[in-house]
Structures are given as structure tokens and as C-alpha cells.
TrEMBL record:
InterPro entries: Cys/Met-Metab_PyrdxlP-dep_enz, PyrdxlP-dep_Trfase, PyrdxlP-dep_Trfase_major, PyrdxlP-dep_Trfase_small. It catalyses: L-homocysteine + H2O = 2-oxobutanoate + hydrogen sulfide + NH4(+) + H(+); L-methionine + H2O = methanethiol + 2-oxobutanoate + NH4(+). The modification N6-(pyridoxal phosphate)lysine is found at residue 208. GO terms for molecular function: homocysteine desulfhydrase activity; methionine gamma-lyase activity; pyridoxal phosphate binding. One of its GO terms (biological process) is transsulfuration. This is homocysteine desulfhydrase. Its EC number is 4.4.1.2. PANTHER family: CYSTATHIONINE GAMMA-LYASE, TRANS-SULFURATION ENZYME FAMILY MEMBER. Its cofactor is pyridoxal 5'-phosphate. The keyword RNA-binding does not apply. Pfam families: Cys_Met_Meta_PP.
Length: 400
């Protein structure tokens, strides 16, 4: 697809044409475990990779390939490979490049599952994991300069939407000969393109914004062909393959990616601004607010500030317990990035594994609420929050 085609058009058209069949205008869901050949020489040529084609469903699938190509083109990458979940994309990528004795530098605020890989599984393999304070660029640079195989970043982070300067970290990584990987789930390719900022590999939990309808799990990795093919090989053997039905649902969801994300950017900004005016709200975390400590970096590297924000309320868990059930237009659930607004306390969602003391050390108050803005009409979202705040029992206000 031509370079100057815009993102909204790419989201709709990219990656599909090659997989169409029977004159259908939509990509088919190819539910076939294997692919048959009458010509033994042709079968061999496909099997050894000399000729395009499919052999076995654990390796490749036409529906999955359309999904991979759509994400690849949106991220401006050379190559892409898909996985059963976002965590499979992360674990397979790390598993491909990290060996016993290696060192990886990352941040303290990565997604909970990623953090578990860093604190539980990689140390078991004698891999040295260094986790720096998120947003402390000097500390990350100093650790990277000591030498590391991988620099792993996520920005914005979960749930306090901290921002790391991607271009600066890519330079630090390059200087140290490290592979720089960014989890771009929160930003989506609509708001942020880390490859263009100099990183080596970008991955997504497609389960979130890419799919956008909370009905399919998936993960995807994009970057240079040489690197992604290594991870593809690890994945085809280890088996965390994306299911064709999920690929279809994700593809269909992605057609509206730009529309959805633009609306979510707008809604999140307006909700964040509204929350700043509410007495019982202590802090609002959103990279689009000028009060955000890294608003300038976000402005520089993002074309939209995303659909994710969080806020803390006076009265902590007690207030959360009364407030969230009152919301009519929000799911109280663990996922994010869907067309519906989704809310949840961090102590139940992203940081459920931590003790209250650990959460406090990470700057996550017990009364922190994560808010994933949906694509509803903004008047209704704010109206819903207003009525929920107004219905809080009087003793909440007198006790805080
Ligand atoms: C959800 C999420 C993941 C994990 O994705 P799954 O599809 O649930 O495995 C990884 N990174 C981020 C930032 C996420 O939000």
C-alpha cells in the first residue's frame, strides 16, 4: 500500500485484498488445520519457504495473515506475526531473544502480566532483570549504558498513564547495542508509532483497542523482517498461535480503529477535564492534561493522548465501593480499550497481585479508578459520572 495513504483508509483496506476468495469483499474465516497439495514438488517448495502458501495451521493461516498485514501496514513495519494473546506476544518475544546470563532493563510500571514475567519467570532462567522508576529517563539510560540485551518499554503505562520518551530511549538502547521493544497497546498505531521513533520491535495486546469490541483475544509483534521471523519461528514451534475466528473478529474491529480511537481520545480528554472540577476527586492522571508531569513528551511523540485515564477519590476504597456500582454506562471489568466505557479499581484489576504497601510504593492509591473511555456520547458519560458522584452517601463527604 502506498506510503501517503492515511491511517483511516489503511485501517479499512490494508492487508485484505490478497486473502479474498470467490469474489467476496470480506476476508474469509479459514477454519482449516492443514493445506493439501497434489504436486509433491510444489508442496516441498511451500514447506521449505521457497514458494508462498500455507502448510499447517499452527504456522500460518490466511485470515491471521490478513490481520498481521493490517497491523504491519498501520505501524509502518516490514513484518508482523500474530499470537493467541498479548501475553503470548510478550513472552514469545522475550523467550526468543533472552538467554541465561543476559540482562534486561525495563520499568516498574509495565502491565501486570509483563511485570510477573520480569519478577517471577525470567529470574528462574538466570536472566538479570533491572526495573527502573517509570519516567526516570536518567536512571534508565544509566542502566542501559551498563550493557543489556533488551530494553523493554511501555508508554503510556497502566494505570497512572506515565510517559517515557521513546526516541530518547531508542537512542540509549542503540548506543548500548540493545534491542528496544515497546508495548504500544495503550496508544495504538493511530496515536503513536514507536518504529518511526527508532525502536526495533513494537507489540500489542490486540485484545484491547485493536479489536475494540472485547470479544476476541490476540497479540501481535511488528518490526524488521529478520527480527520478527525469529520470533515467528519460536511461536510456530511453541504454539501460541492466533485462532482464525479471533483474527476475523480483530480484522473487523480494526476497520473502525481510527474512528474509535479519535472518539476515545476526545472522550477521555473531556472526562479528565470534568474530573478535575469534582471536589471528591483528588488526582486525575491523563497525558493530555497540562498538569501531567510528562505532558510535553506526550505531545511530542503522540498524535492523540489515548482513551485511558485514571483518578483517585477522597475516602479511598469506601468511596470506590459506592461510586462504581452507580454508573449506568460503564462495565466494571478487567479489560480496556472497548467501545463501551470500562471502569475498575486498580486494586482489583491491573495491580491485584500487589499488597496495599506495594501499590502505595508504586504511587497507586487504594482509591484509584482506571477509566477506559468508550465511544458513547460525551454528554451521557459526564452525566453518568455526575449522577454517580451526587448519589454518594452523605457520610462519605463528612468522613473525608
Ligand atoms: C492487556 C495487556 C497486555 C496483555 O494482553 P492479553 O491479550 O490480555 O494477553 C499486555 N500489555 C498491555 C499494556 C495490556 O493492557
Amino acid at each position: 500500500m502506498k506510503k501517503d495513504i492515511r491511517m483511516g483508509t489503511k485501517a479499512i483496506w490494508a492487508g485484505e485484498k490478497e486473502q479474498l476468495a470467490f469474489g467476496a469483499t470480506q476476508v474469509p474465516v479459514v477454519h482449516s488445520v492443514s493445506y493439501g497439495y497434489e504436486d509433491m514438488d510444489e508442496w516441498y517448495e511451500v514447506a521449505v519457504g521457497n514458494k508462498k502458501g500455507h502448510i499447517y495451521g499452527r504456522n500460518t493461516n490466511p485470515t491471521v495473515e490478513a490481520f498481521e498485514n493490517k497491523v504491519r501496514i498501520l505501524e509502518g513495519a516490514e513484518h508482523a506475526t500474530a499470537f493467541s494473546t498479548g501475553m503470548a506476544a510478550i513472552s514469545n518475544t522475550l523467550g526468543t531473544f533472552l538467554f541465561p546470563g543476559d540482562r534486561i532493563v525495563s520499568i516498574k510500571d509495565t502491565y501486570g502480566g509483563t511485570n510477573k514475567i520480569f519478577t517471577e519467570f525470567l529470574p528462574q532462567l538466570n536472566i538479570d532483570v533491572v526495573l527502573c522508576d517509570t519516567g526516570d529517563h536518567e536512571a534508565i539510560e544509566a542502566e542501559v549504558a551498563k550493557g543489556c540485551k533488551v530494553l523493554y518499554l511501555e508508554t503510556p503505562t497502566n494505570p497512572t498513564v506515565k510517559i517515557t520518551d521513546i526516541a530518547r530511549m531508542a537512542r540509549a538502547g542503540k548506543k548500548a547495542g540493545a534491542l528496544v521493544i515497546v508495548d504500544n497497546t495503550f496508544a495504538t498505531p493511530i496515536n503513536q508509532n514507536p518504529l518511526a521513533l527508532g525502536v526495533d520491535l513494537v507489540l500489542h495486546s490486540a485484545t484491547k483497542f485493536l479489536g475494540g469490541h472485547a470479544d476476541a483475544l490476540g497479540g501481535v509483534l511488528v518490526g524488521a523482517k529478520e527480527l520478527v521471523e525469529k520470533v515467528y519461528h519460536y511461536r510456530e514451534i511453541n504454539g501460541a498461535t492466533m485462532d482464525p475466528m479471533s483474527a476475523y473478529l480483530l480484522l473487523r474491529g480494526m476497520k473502525t480503529l481510527k474512528l474509535r480511537v479519535e472518539r476515545q481520545n476526545e472522550n477521555a480528554m473531556k472526562v479528565a477535564e470534568y474530573l478535575q472540577s469534582v471536589d471528591i476527586v483528588d488526582d486525575v492522571f491523563y497525558p493530555g492534561l497540562e498538569t501531567h508531569p510528562h505532558h510535553d513528551i506526550a505531545k511530542e511523540q503522540m498524535s492523540g493522548f489515548g482513551g485511558m485515564l485514571s483518578f483517585s477519590v477522597k475516602g479511598g476504597v469506601d468511596t470506590v465501593r459506592h461510586l462504581l456500582p452507580k454508573l449506568e454506562f460503564a462495565n466494571r471489568a478487567a479489560n480496556l480499550g472497548s467501545v463501551e466505557t470500562i471502569v475498575g479499581p486498580s486494586r482489583t484489576t491491573s495491580h491485584v497481585e500487589c499488597t496495599p504497601e506495594e501499590r502505595a510504593a508504586m504511587g497507586i492509591p487504594e482509591g484509584l479508578i482506571r477509566y477506559s473511555a468508550g465511544i458513547e456520547d460525551i454528554e451521557d458519560l459526564i452525566g453518568d459520572l455526575e449522577q454517580a458522584f451526587q448519589s454518594l452517601p452523605k457520610e462519605i463527604f463528612t468522613s473525608v
